[in-house]
Write a structure and sequence with these properties.
The protein is α+β, with helices and mostly antiparallel strands and about 500 residues long. Strands 2-6-7-10-1-11-12-13-14 form a nine-stranded mixed β-sheet. Strands 5-4-15 form a three-stranded antiparallel β-sheet, with no helix packed on it. It contains 17 helices and 16 strands. The protein folds into three domains: about 290 residues, no CATH class; about 120 residues, no CATH class; about 60 residues, Arc Repressor Mutant, subunit A (Orthogonal Bundle), CATH 1.10.10. Strand 13 and strand 14 form a beta hairpin. The chain binds adenosine-5'-diphosphate, magnesium ion and zinc ion (ZN). Zinc ion (ZN) binds next to helix 1.
Length: about 500
């Protein structure tokens, strides 16, 4: 707790995010990249680190790296150079990891976040660098023994190093969701924290507010979700503040997040670059990244979410929540725009997608690509509603059924008996029936001037019509019929 007498501390946070690239083969060999295969079945002399085996570079991995760099507004290096990062670990059979040290493929970028900074501008976090490296294998601890699975060894990764620009655990959370959203537009990774294709280490320090110099930082590992990142940072900030306030000294260290105990604990003091004895990878030559390659990749980038959001806000006049929701999922936003191509009512369509379509996706755990309703069929449904052949309630009911069967709107509405036929006689009869049925109660009240009972009477008539009426038309007709009863003499015949 900070009180007025104590120093107010400001957290400083910088995140390192590892993204596993979606390539067919590994970074330096032809082994397949696949999650969940039998242990050590996807290995060869190169990724096992057998003596004499020589690596070759996966071109697709470099291109994915360029794609990520461009999407994060980075400069792209003019050549690719790999370095060896030496350390000893059971799941690192070569005794080194091939990475990039002094010449990262991408550098000097930035990520714009959908929150405001202190001066009211969109918050920007610098992207210091994004470099290529190979993944290590996995150590599996079972009882007293440790087993090693090298299927993952040599899988291409991009490490995205964010600047120390984040000032709260919440900002770190927004950074991660925004970064993930942007990466999802590129199709370069599964981005699954569960499968480990997206991993994050969080660096954090605190400083007295107003002080320029950064405090001593700790790096937190073993973060399995964005929520864990936020929780671990909150814990660690409190710990830093209490150490500093207690007159203690922090040391730069690597700490592990314990998801059960909700606390961090020290793993080791932080390694320095010199501990890794980096040197240029002698088995790979450097090679050029021609500018026309970069331009070709640039030309294939989709419209990125920041721009798309502005377009949805300005051109389509959507509210911010709906626009952000749609833009957050590229496939869903594409689907939404496919509907607009057929039916140019952005706000009306957005309401359908954000509410009804989304509900189906949530309830049935589907991606939009798996929804049986096509954009054409949603438009068919909206047009039935426009034409008064369905009302708001029956249209939603029909949509739900369409989502189950994939049938068209007209066919479904007919099958469910929800299509409003132009049988005026049926409507008139329903009105007469309701007036007769409630003549001593609601109708009498209405005639005494309690006009608010009209809604009840419309509801009753709608029930008799099994929802097959336009509520507005029905209301008008019912009102007209009631007005007639009000005329002197009319009551005598009733
Ligand atoms: P290293 O190479 O030792 O990991 P870097 O300088 O590359 O160190 O920084 C790694 C990450 O730590 C970056 O995301 C950076 O923003 C963050 N960082 C660096 N210094 C601090 C600090 N004092 N407090 C919080 N985060 C920091
Ligand atoms: Mg680092
Ligand atoms: Zn291999």
């Amino acid at each position: 707790m900070t009180t007025a007498t104590q120093t107010d501390f400001e957290p400083v946070i910088g995140l390192e995010v590892h993204v596993q690239l979606k390539t067919r083969s590994k970074m330096f060999c032809r082994c397949e990249v696949r999650f969940g295969a039998p242990a050590n079945s996807l290995t060869c002399p190169v990724c096992l680190g057998l003596p004499g085996a020589l690596p070759t570079v996966n071109r697709q991995a470099i291109e994915h790296g360029i794609r990520i760099g461009l999407a994060l507004n980075c400069q792209i290096a003019h050549r690719v150079k790999f370095d060896r990062k030496n350390y000893f670990y059971p799941d690192l059979p070569k005794g080194y990891q091939v990475s990039q040290y002094d010449e990262p493929l991408c550098f000097d970028g930035e990520l714009q976040m959908p929150i405001m900074d202190a001066s009211g501008n969109p918050k920007i976090c610098r992207i210091t660098r994004a470099h290529l490296e190979e993944d290590a294998g996995k150590s599996i601890h079972m009882g007293h023994s440790t087993l090693v699975d090298l299927n993952r060894a040599g899988t291409p990764l991009v490490e995205i190093v964010g600047g120390p620009d984040l000032r709260s655990p919440e900002e770190a959370y927004v950074y991660l969701t925004t970064l993930k959203r942007n990466l999802s537009y590129l199709g370069v990774s599964d981005l699954s924290m569960e499968k480990g294709s997206l991993r994050c280490d969080a660096n954090v320090s605190v400083r007295p507010r107003g002080q320029e110099k950064f405090g001593v930082r700790s790096e937190i590992k073993n973060l399995n979700s964005f929520r864990a990142v936020r929780a671990a940072l909150e814990f660690e900030i409190r710990r830093h503040v209490s150490v500093v306030e207690g007159g203690g000294k922090l040391t730069q260290e690597t700490r592990l997040w314990d998801e059960e105990k909700l606390e961090t604990r020290s793993l080791r003091s932080k390694e320095e670059a010199t501990d890794y004895r980096f040197f240029p990878e002698p088995d790979l030559t450097t090679f050029d990244v021609p500018r026309d390659w970069v331009q070709r990749v640039q030309a294939t980038l989709p419209e990125m979410p920041e721009k798309r959001l502005l377009r949805f806000l300005h051109d389509f006049k959507l509210n911010r929540a709906d626009a952000e929701f749609l833009v957050g999922d590229k496939e869903l936003a594409d689907w939404y725009e496919a509907v607009l191509k057929l039916y140019d009512e952005p706000r009306k369509v957005a309401a359908w997608v954000v509410v009804e379509v989304n509900r189906e996706l949530q309830e049935r755990h589907l991606e939009i690509s798996q929804l049986p309703v096509t954009p054409e069929r949603l438009v068919e449904l909206i047009k039935l509603l426009d034409a008064g052949k369905l009302n708001n309630i029956t249209a939603k009911e029909v949509f739900k059924a369409m989502a189950e069967t994939g049938e068209g709107a007209m066919a479904t509405a007919k099958r469910l008996g929800r299509l409003i036929e132009q049988d005026e006689g049926e409507v008139d009869r329903a009105i007469e029936d309701v007036i007769t049925e409630f003549k001593d109660k609601a109708v009498a009240d209405y005639l005494r001037g309690e006009t608010k009972v009209l809604g009840f009477l419309v509801g009753q008539a709608m029930r008799k019509l099994k929802g097959k009426a336009n509520p507005k038309d029905l209301g008008q007709k019912l009102e007209a019929a009631l007005k007639q009863k009000q005329e002197p003499g009319a009551q005598a015949t009733g």
